[in-house]
Design brief:
This protein has 299 residues and is an alpha/beta fold. It contains 11 helices and 13 strands. Helix content is 36%, strand content 20%. Helix 9 links the parallel strand 11 and strand 12. Helix 1 packs parallel to helix 4.
Length: 299
């Protein structure tokens, strides 16, 4: 395992390890188990390491004054609390998801938005937890997730450096993975601030640092890998035009295929920084170099 490494199930995540790719399904299933299964299958096809969902207890997560606010939904006009209940997957659905992921050989875990959600998810023996950027200041929730003894991915969007420091201190740095993020959906390229990866690596050299992206397009995520992100999280969808707040900032399955394939190419292309003369260069030496010298290292 690398200097800053955390084991998630059988995978080591950290410097010197393959980038750990998380396909964030979140609530893009819109409460449909069929859509959730299709997204899992798409993540498997693309070669992602894990899929991630979100789990909320609506009565705890929705402020009481918002319960009766009405909104238009694909199921008609309803109150906000009823909408939140509509898109929330329950025990039966997660049992199917758990079985399907095991059959397809992909890890799954979830962002727990409240402590009751942690208790709910514990019955499925998840390999890790995720704390969404919105939860970074909920120190009791961070401590509850870490108390399970499982690794915790912590997103840092919509947060100041002081809030990040306080959240990390509350969670503890053992088995902690920190994700740079900007919580705008979708996020303008000029606000991605990818050099925060360097800042976080300097602040927390003992924690794997990754990137949770909400931009349109794939290039910034590839750039994050080049800058040393040890894990990547991107929202996935069947169709960016689908109804839902996260769809427009998501990657369709075809895009996820390109995203993962090119991450693996970038990993191979970066190499190890040791200068070599490769076997494929030898014919060019004979053909093009007028003055030749002996060298010790070859591919």
């Amino acid at each position: 395992m690398s200097r800053a490494g955390v084991r998630v199930a059988k995978r080591s995540v950290g410097e010197g390890e393959p980038v750990f790719v998380i396909a964030e399904i979140g609530i893009n299933h819109n409460g449909s188990l069929e859509v959730a299964r299709k997204l899992i299958d798409g993540a498997v096809l693309a070669g992602a390491d894990a899929v991630k969902f979100q789990k909320r207890t609506p009565e705890l997560c929705v402020p009481r004054e918002q319960w009766t606010l009405e909104r238009e939904t694909p199921w008609g006009r309803m109150t906000y609390i009823d909408y939140r209940r509509k898109v929330e997957l329950g025990e039966r659905e997660f049992e199917v998801i758990d079985r399907h992921c095991r059959e397809r050989g992909i890890l799954w875990f979830a962002s727990a938005w409240d402590e009751a959600a942690v208790d709910f998810l514990e019955r499925f023996d998840p390999p890790a937890y995720k704390a969404a950027s919105a939860s970074l200041t909920d120190h009791d929730l961070l401590r509850r997730m870490k108390a399970t003894g499982r690794p915790l991915f912590l997103s840092t969007g919509m947060s100041t450096l002081d809030e990040i420091r306080a959240g990390v201190a509350a969670a503890g740095r053992d088995q902690l993975l920190i994700a740079h993020a900007t919580s705008t959906y979708p996020c303008p390229v000029g606000e991605l601030n990818l050099r925060m990866l360097d800042t976080l690596k300097a602040m927390y050299p003992d924690c794997p640092i990754g990137y949770s992206g909400h931009e349109t397009g794939l290039a910034p995520t590839w750039a994050a890998v080049t800058l040393g992100a040890t894990f990547i999280e991107r929202h996935v969808t069947l169709d960016r035009a689908m109804w839902g707040s996260d769809q427009a900032a998501s990657v369709e399955i075809g895009g996820l295929l390109r995203l993962v394939a090119n991450i693996r190419d970038i990993e191979r292309a970066l190499g190890d920084g040791v200068k070599r003369v490769y076997a494929g260069e030898l014919p060019q030496i004979e053909k093009l170099r007028r003055v030749k010298t002996a060298f010790a290292e070859t591919a």
